Amino acid sequence: MVHRETLEKQQECLKRQREAVKYRLKKLAARQSEITKRSTVIRENIIRKYLEIRAILDEDLRITLSHLEMEERAAVSALDGLMERNCSLIQEIEQDLARLTVAMDQTDTDPDTMSFFSYPEQQDTETVDRVIDLLNSTDPSSVRLDEAKAEQILSLANNMLLLISSQTPIIKSFTKSYSSEVCLDPETAHPKLIISPSGDSAIYTDTWQQLPDLPGRFDTTLNVISLQGFSFGHHYWEIDVTGKTYWELGVTYPNIPRKGTTEDCWLGRGDESWCVEFFDGEYTAWHGGVPHQLSFTKRFCRIGVLCSFPAGLVTFLEAENMTPLFSFCAGTFSDCLHLALCPGHDHNGTNAQPIVICNAPSPTSDL
Fold first, then answer.
1. Which of 286, 181, 305 is nearest to 239 (CA)?
2. 276 and 286 Cβ atoms separated by less than 8 Å
3. pTM for the complete prediction?
4. In this predicted model, what pLDDT tens digit does every residue of 74-94 receive, in sequence order?
5. Could you give the CA distance from residue 332 to residue 307 in angstroms, rounded to a whole number?
6. Sign of CA dihedral 62, 67, 73, 79
7. Does residue 281 contact residue 268 with C-beta atoms inside 8 Å?
């Protein structure tokens, strides 16, 4: 009987635990729906703003072109009027020429008729004066567009283009505002890594350097982490990987395993770190030992790493055009984060280039 009561208590306890987990699952599903809805609203608001910008530019273009077209019509109309005056005078001269031709023909056949078709010299002079006056008053160069205003409009449009270009991609402007200066901690570097004096780069060497076997030094994986750790706000770094055929980079908690051959020592293979790896022409995002194959094939030269503590996000991107590569959502970071790099082996000289932090200060700078 006592045994049954114990079993019943265990059963009730398990039921309560099951209900608690079910309730949490329900909350997580609700939160997922809330995140999706909120993200949709954010996207729609951003799209609306871009459409408003487009509408303003379209309307401005319409008004500008309508002014230019109106001025064009005025100039063309003025030229039509001048051409009409020229045509009228040509018709008059043609008529006079026709009369003279008739007179000359009749004179050839009957010289006595000459007196009836005389063409006064005074009329010749008047015609010459009218032609000169017409030519002077219908100079084609007298009709022109307002080139100075057109150049000013073009200059203003170019300035607007430069302004827009300087602010886009929009993501680039505010992401770079999160830039945080870091330098690599040589006391964490694997003995086959040479860290530059300024702490901004790491390069592989075949020589095992005789360095103190410190607790924080990686002894198997070719890793090094930053001297600085971050625990709040937003932080952004750009890493130059030009000419490299293999690298890993990301962020890690300070408690990442550093000794031995355990898989967790590799970036992204444990729960302590997040990374993107480039190897054999392929990109892979890693966390918790789970690989995420990325579809990119282009060999990027500079990779950005963005950490958002408010959102618990680690985002990797191609830094030149701000193309997103992959994002991890940790929810809430449980510790401070350090930038972590692995330049990889030199692979018979094909991967001999260093991996470089593009915004690293001197190690003597205030932290």
1. 305
2. yes
3. 0.75
4. 999 999 999 999 999 899 888
5. 12
6. negative
7. no
